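As practice, study what follows.
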Amino acid sequence: MYKIFIIILLLVMSSVVCFGARLTIRGEPAKFTQGPAHGMGDNLYSGAALMNDSNVCFVPYYSSYIGIYNPASNTFVQGPAHSQGGGAYQSAVLMNDGNVCFAPDNSDYVGIYNPASNTFVQGPAHSQGDLAYEGAVLMNDGNVCFAPYNADNVGIYNPVSNTFTEGPAHGQGNSAYIGAVLMNDSNVCFIPYYSDYVGIYNPVSNTFIQGPAHSQGNGAYQGAVLMNDGNVCFAPLNSDYVGIYNPVSNTFTEGAAHSQGDGAYQGAVLMNDGNVCFAPLSSDYVGIYNPVSNTFTEGPAHGQGDYAYRGAALMNDGNVCFVPLWADYVGIYEVQRDNKPITILGKHIQMIKSP
């Protein structure tokens, strides 16, 4: 009687189909979920970093406060104020000490968020003017490299000495790069925005190298991620194509077309299945790039309007968190789970994907 009751319960609650002694539990397809409202207004955050406590830190752009998303409770928390004015920071990276470093855009100072004390700390001044840096990455020596937007020089922040160092000049003009990625050779790849060329920073020789041309026009890409094959995938903003940089051959390749129009995506994360997820800025759909087949897939719609999200972070559960720019809600891309056989009451149960 007890076994019969359990089987009936599974049939009702888990969409179970029974074939003799075998039970099959159907899984859920990938989907977009509207997370918690933030109530902070518009033009808020730009970039994110996953912290050691599994929470996501949103980088304050025009928001006066740091934003925190807690995936365990699915709640948004207003963090500390930064007092750095509008357009303060763009992009962030988790440092080895567990603090988050913000790349200074309009702020005159590097920004530091300490999640243990929930405090903002004004770091050193950079003297590179407004719209200085838009992109940050942790290098192998523990220092942070900032991608130069209007700054004439690469930026380097040393968290041990709490000092900013002016790196080499890049000579690519204003609005040069948005986003930075550490590659397997320990060099940093800068993502071309108005620059006609991919940018490379070598931290060992402290030199800037002009990489290959991309021929995708102005405002081509914003954000990128290192893929499992060692290549860098660029998130297409105004370019009609995903961008691929191969550091071994030092070549740029025009990847798959996306057909999402201008202002499509800003931000990219590598998911556990090896595919790349693009954060939708003005595209109505989450973007998915498969590097094995070199194909773009239109993911689920998000329904948050134009200029919705600016940046993304892969969370510990394998889902992707989108950073709200104009969206009223945190965005969550829930990935489809793999099949997982389980055993209940001595019976084999196979969890499968929904058709």
Observations:
- The CA atoms of residues 140 and 186 lie 7 Å apart.
- Helices lie at 2-14.
